[in-house]
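stage 2 :: seqdesign
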């Protein structure tokens, strides 16, 4: 079943067309990756799905609800969450305060505590530093905190904007393991990545954006074997 349906979406910043006629589907339980060069419109797509930038044309349906013009908090209440590029952790707040921020829309405070403990079980580095400012975490640990914070909202679809950017190879591996694990637990994922090879390995479907338009879409294995994609993003020729 389609969880997220983006159809013929257009977004402009003034006279700059950032997205034109973009369509994409995320089915329940899938990881879908969006690839493309800098400036292709990937972040704009995630922002439009979250409602952070206005849509000029087309539609966004999530769990059969038309959210094209809904306010961001309404979308979040439906189970959409974004882990933004650069993580946007509040470094002067403690690890725990950052996690609690992710749960600010929830009223089931008892369950919130239980989930926080589950996150601490998963990330011992966060548990050990729960009362320390987030500034004491490494970049990789901050990315785990950003994902933990997003999990606290109990999302149905997690959107990740270039989560591997700036991470050490060890943390990149850990990050992709985590994405796989969360997905195996039932979470659907929309993953924007510049690490094309790893993203295609983890994803069930892939879409390539160029200058705001979809130029390729389909099965990751087929895209990985496509000479155009190899030349542009996989270092092949
Ligand atoms: P990156 O990997 O660099 O983040 P991207 O694929 O996410 O790139 P976007 O950030 O979505 O691309 O940008 C798409 C286009 O829209 C680019 O031409 C960019 O310059 C332009 N753009 C993005 N944000 C704005 C803005 N706030 N105002 C004007 N133009 C913008």
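stage 2 :: out
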């Amino acid at each position: 079943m389609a969880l997220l349906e983006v159809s013929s979406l257009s977004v402009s910043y003034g006279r700059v067309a950032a997205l034109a006629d973009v369509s994409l589907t995320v089915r329940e339980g899938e990881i879908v990756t969006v690839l493309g060069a800098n400036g292709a419109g990937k972040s704009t797509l995630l922002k439009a799905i979250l409602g952070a930038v206005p849509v000029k044309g087309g539609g966004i349906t999530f769990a059969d609800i038309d959210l094209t013009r809904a306010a961001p908090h309404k979308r979040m209440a439906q189970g959409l969450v974004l882990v933004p590029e650069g993580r946007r952790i509040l470094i002067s707040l403690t690890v725990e305060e950052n996690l609690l921020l992710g749960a600010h829309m929830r009223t089931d405070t008892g369950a919130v505590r239980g989930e926080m403990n589950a996150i601490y079980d998963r990330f011992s580095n966060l548990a050990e530093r729960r009362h320390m400012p987030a500034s004491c975490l490494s970049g990789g640990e901050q990315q785990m905190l950003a994902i933990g914070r997003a999990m606290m909202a109990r999302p149905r679809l997690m959107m990740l904007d270039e989560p591997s950017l700036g991470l050490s190879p060890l943390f990149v591996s850990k990050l992709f393991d985590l994405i796989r694990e969360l997905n195996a637990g039932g979470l659907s994922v929309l993953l924007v990545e510049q690490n094309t090879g790893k993203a295609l390995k983890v994803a069930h479907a892939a879409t390539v954006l160029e200058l705001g338009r979809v130029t390729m879409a389909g099965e990751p294995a087929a895209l990985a074997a496509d000479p155009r994609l190899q030349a542009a993003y996989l270092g092949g020729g």
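stage 3 :: structure notes
- The first helix runs from residue 42 to 50.
- The mean pLDDT is 92.
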